[in-house]
């Protein structure tokens, strides 16, 4: 069979696949060979829809953003995967938590590696999120129309800190117990709601079993869900604001006004 015949058969099979109902139910638009098809593909794909159709050149430079937002999201995924693994071997009980951590590090296959990955990813996420906030502030990316997304980013920063704070108690060793004791004892000094916040954090008069349960639930359920929701809004606002960095693209009416003024100016000259 000649190469021409093989190519024609391949083209025929490809054409039938692209025109099939299964393909069209998944990919609703054709190949992105025109600006219209590019926009339609971006709008119709949930993953591509997270990115703006057009971005500024400055947003594509690694030295401008240092990928700090992407690194923070990657570390969040690492923490989620390793955290699910650790949950299979951890019981939030003051009589078993410390033994679970020791068994995880000595008797579980890849347990010590996974726990260290989780611990270092948590430290690095605090660093990358903080540096990301500094970078955004330095470049003035918090200014209109991005001020709402800046507030979302601040909330994500606090979620990251609370995730690190709640996870610190879970090993239930002496360092963790006394560190959280010092941290929670600062709450009563807050005005008006200080004592109420302390009771919510500890569940009693000191760091004990209710505290461990509350920190565990906050660490594996409440804070990760809050972080995932805020990140979804954060990514959506980045797309709507015209990209991750640099000034947003001018509105269509402004572009049309510029074109009209340019045409009038050339006509007068």
Q: Can you tell me about this structure?
A:
Helix 8 runs antiparallel to helix 11. This protein is an all-alpha fold. The chain has helices spanning 3-19, 21-26, 35-44, 62-65, 68-87, 97-106, 111-138, 147-169, 174-185, 194-202, 209-240, 252-268. It has a domain at 64-243: Cytochrome Bc1 Complex, Chain C (Up-down Bundle), CATH 1.20.810. 70% of the residues lie in helices and 0% in strands. It is flat and about 80 Å long. The N and C termini lie far apart (67 Å). It is built from 12 helices and no strands. The mean pLDDT is 87.
In short:
The chain is mainly alpha-helical.
Short key terms for the protein model shown above:
single chain, 269 residues, mainly alpha, Cytochrome Bc1 Complex, Chain C, 12 helices, 70% helix, 0% strand
Q: What is the architecture of the domain at 64-243 at the second tier of CATH?
A: Up-down Bundle
Q: Structural class of the helix and strand makeup?
A: mainly alpha
Total E-strand runs = 0
Q: Could you spell the SSE succession in H and E letters?
A: HHHHHHHHHHHH
Report the biggest beta sheet as strand number plus sense, adding barrel if it closes. none
Blueprint (SSEs and pairs):
Blueprint: H1 3-19, H2 21-26, H3 35-44, H4 62-65, H5 68-87, H6 97-106, H7 111-138, H8 147-169, H9 174-185, H10 194-202, H11 209-240, H12 252-268
Helix pairs in contact: 5-7, 7-8, 8-11
């Amino acid at each position: 069979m000649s190469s021409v015949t093989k190519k024609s058969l391949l083209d025929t099979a490809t054409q039938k696949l692209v025109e099939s109902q299964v393909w069209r139910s998944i990919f609703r638009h054709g190949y992105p060979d025109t600006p219209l098809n590019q926009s339609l593909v971006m709008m119709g794909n949930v993953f591509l829809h997270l990115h703006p159709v057009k971005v500024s050149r400055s947003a594509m430079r690694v030295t401008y953003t240092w990928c700090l937002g992407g690194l923070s999201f990657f570390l969040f995924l690492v923490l989620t995967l390793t955290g699910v693994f650790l949950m299979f071997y951890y019981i939030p009980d003051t009589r078993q938590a410390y033994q679970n951590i020791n068994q995880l590090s000595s008797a579980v296959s890849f347990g010590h590696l996974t726990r260290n990955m989780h611990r270092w990813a948590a430290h690095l996420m605090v660093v990358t999120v903080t540096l990301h906030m500094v970078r955004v502030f330095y470049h003035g990316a918090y200014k209109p129309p991005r001020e709402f997304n800046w507030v979302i980013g601040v909330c994500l920063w606090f979620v990251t800190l609370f995730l690190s704070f709640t996870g610190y108690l879970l090993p239930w060793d002496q360092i963790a117990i006394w560190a959280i004791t010092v941290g929670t004892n600062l709450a009563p000094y807050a005005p008006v709601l200080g004592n109420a916040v302390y009771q919510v954090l500890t569940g009693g008069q000191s760091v004990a079993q209710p505290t461990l349960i509350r920190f565990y639930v906050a660490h594996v359920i409440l804070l990760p869900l809050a972080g995932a929701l805020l990140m979804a809004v954060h990514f959506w606002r980045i797309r709507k604001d015209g990209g991750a960095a640099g000034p947003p693209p001018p509105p269509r009416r402004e572009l049309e006004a510029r074109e009209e003024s340019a045409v009038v100016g050339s006509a007068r000259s």
